[in-house]
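Hi team,

Below is the intake form for HupE/UreJ family protein from Ruegeria spongiae. Please confirm the fields before the structure is written into the shared record.

FORM ID: S-0412
PROTEIN: HupE/UreJ family protein
ORGANISM: Ruegeria spongiae
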Amino acid sequence: MAGTFHAMHLRLRLWVLLSSLWCLCAPALAHEVTPSIADFSVSEGQLTMEFRLNVEAFLAGIDLDGMSDTDESELSTNYDSYRAMGSAELEPLVRDFAIGWIETLAVDVGGPVDLSFEGVRIPVIGDTDLPRASHLLFAGGVPAAAREFRMTWPGGAGDLVLRQQGVKDPYTGYLKGGETSPAIALAGGAALGPMATFQAYVPIGFEHILPYGIDHILFVLGLFFLSPRLRPLVWQISAFTLAHTLTLALGTLGVVQVRPEIVEPLIALSIVFVALENIFVRRLYPWRVVVVFGFGLLHGLGFATVLGEYGLPAAQFIPALVGFNIGVEIGQLTVIAIAFLTVGLWFRDRSWYRGRIAIPASLVIAGIGAYWFVERVYLT
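The structure came back. Fields below:
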């Protein structure tokens, strides 16, 4: 009886583990939500605002606050229908939407600004599993005596990177749906200080791992399943951290630049490699650490692409870079902690841990990585 209960208990935990892995990877197989970006400038009494956003999600009426994937919404079918439209077919719908959406943008520059819609640029259809970033342009007159800019980002609109253009020491900030920006001096000089910049970029780095960095999560889990013991993990995570910190810095500085269409398939292959190695290798060999270091270089380039989309403030480049990287590390350590509390703490000393938990989980991870590689090479 005890043996039967033990077997059922083991199967239940294994089912939960594999199901969790599938749930983690599901967003990456569908439609990832990315932050919108708003660039604003004031010149000769005219405010110009350009928004880069996933306009199909807005058209569908999806509440993007706290959402990592549009398939989580009941309105995802509407999103998919807009996403499949060509630029010419979608443009009149976007124009109608933008004229009404202006009213939700509470912009104050020495008084409320009456914005007008000036145009839209919609990319051609590419991979429909990836968000399409359209550009919407708005403009409005401001009083000659205006000194500050303030904007409230609408609730339900998800995350926004707000960037000031055309001045010295421009402001760069991060707003969530429903939040209001601080008062931003139109003459410039509103750039965040070192500590404020550092604090602002830590959560951005963390969110790129949890919940948005599904491929990085699976890679870290691949490192974990070789052995949930501390010593092998420390060697591997240290090599991975050192490597991706190096290329993250070089990539954001523009010293090393590799196109995402090259980096992303290689990141998928790195997931396949560490997962399959877990199946055929029983302990940590020195060459595994070297391989993990090499893969860390690739992941750092992936981080650099994301950080480049947010835009690093030139005056506080180092605090922003360090804050982002620390956020990434906290995210990775959180993944390891969850894996250890879920699996390692209970089963690491069991003789059947490798055959019944580590190998099945690694097979799932390898399968997901292989799917992503094919998708990124042949379906984009």
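SUMMARY LINE: The CA atoms of residues 28 and 186 lie 39 Å apart.

Thanks, M.
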